[in-house]
Amino acid sequence: MSPTPRSQALREIALVFLKLGATAFGGPAAHIAMMEREVVRKRAWVTHAEFLDLVGATNLIPGPNSTELVIHLGHRRAGWPGLIVAGICFILPATLIVGVIAWAYVRFGVRPEATRLLYGVKPVIVAVIAQALWMLARSAVKSTALAALAAAALILTALGANELAVLFGAGAIMAAPRLLRTRPSPGALVFAPLFAAVPAAAAAVPFSTGALFWFFMKVGSVLFGSGYVLLAFLRADLVERWGWLSETQLLDAIAAGQITPGPVFTTATFIGYLLGGPSAALAATVGIFLPAFVFVALSGPFIPRLRASPVAGAFLDGLNVASLALMACVSWQLARVALIDWPTLALAAGATFILLNTRLNSAWLVLAGAAIGLLIAP
Question: What is the pTM assigned to this prediction?
Answer without folding.
Answer: 0.70
